[in-house]
Amino acid sequence: GQQVMQIPQYQHVQEGEDFTTYCNSSTTLSNIQWYKQRPGGHPVFLIQLVKSGEVKKQKRLTFQFGEAKKNSSLHITATQTTDVGTYFCARSGGGADGLTFGKGTHLIIQP
Amino acid sequence: NAGVMQNPRHLVRRRGQEARLRCSPMKGHSHVYWYRQLPEEGLKFMVYLQKENIIDESGMPKERFSAEFPKEGPSILRIQQVVRGDSAAYFCASSPPNGRDEQYFGPGTRLTVT
């Protein structure tokens, strides 16, 4: 399958600081999805981006899809302890019918 | 409206035994996906099924692993003669039949092979 690369793997922030994770592909993506997984939990769908240059917001979360549809980012403003978890990007249509996930960015928040 | 259900939540098997993992999709969903997650790793696609049909099993190991989604009852992921390397979290996801891509995940089955 065609991979998606996520950076950073781990991010430590102080509560109240911002957080950004990046997702990159060497090939053009038809769409990109973002999921959040709490420690010990299961992935929860956050959003899907489809259009070039698309920007979507969910409260303190801002999702962007690059103009070339090869990269995406998730930005969290003023992190809270409830934001702790691993954030995954995932692509569909990469050769298999299932989703191809990045390895995730683990967000660790220090109070 | 119940979400995706998986059981058991935790399963311990000795090497050589069989593991059976069950998944009931969300009501109204007809597409089921199985993923495997190793510690500190992302999820790896294994198989995609619709009722009575395996649509894509490109992510399934060639041996010992099988999956089904019968007309009645849950989807089953079966692992025969388990080995220590099979220890992982196995997640099932379902999606609606309307062409939307987002998937809804169950709580997972944590398989430990001793």
What does this structure look like?
The complex is a heterodimer of chains A (111) and B (114). Chain A is mostly beta strands. Chain A is 0% helix and 50% strand. Chain B contains no helices and 11 strands. The chains are: A mainly beta (111), B mainly beta (114).
Write out key terms for the chains shown.
heterodimer, A: 111 residues, mainly beta, 6-stranded mixed beta sheet, 5-stranded antiparallel beta sheet, 11 strands, 0% helix, globular, B: 114 residues, 7-stranded mixed beta sheet, 4-stranded antiparallel beta sheet
Helix-strand blueprint:
The complex is a heterodimer of chains A (111) and B (114).
Chain A: E1 5-7, E2 10-14, E3 19-24, E4 32-37, E5 44-49, E6 55-58, E7 61-65, E8 71-76, E9 85-91, E10 100-101, E11 105-110
Parallel strand pairs in A: 2-11
Antiparallel strand pairs in A: 1-3, 3-8, 4-5, 4-9, 6-7, 7-8, 9-10, 9-11
Chain B: E1 5-7, E2 10-13, E3 19-24, E4 31-37, E5 43-50, E6 53-56, E7 65-68, E8 75-79, E9 88-95, E10 104-105, E11 109-113
Parallel strand pairs in B: 2-11
Antiparallel strand pairs in B: 1-3, 3-8, 4-5, 4-9, 5-6, 7-8, 9-10, 9-11
Distance between the termini of chain A: 39 Å
Q: Which stretches of chain B are low in confidence, meaning pLDDT under 50 for 5 or more residues running?
A: none
Q: What is the helix fraction of residues of chain B, given as a range?
A: under 10%
Query: How many helical stretches of chain B?
Result: 0
Mean pLDDT of chain A: 93
Terminal CA distance of chain B: 37 Å
Structural class of chain B: mainly beta
The 3D shape of chain B can be described as globular
User: What integer value in Å does the Rg of chain A equal?
Assistant: 13 Å
Summarize the structure.
The complex is a heterodimer of chains A (111) and B (114). Chain A is an all-beta fold and 111 residues long. Chain A is 0% helix and 50% strand.
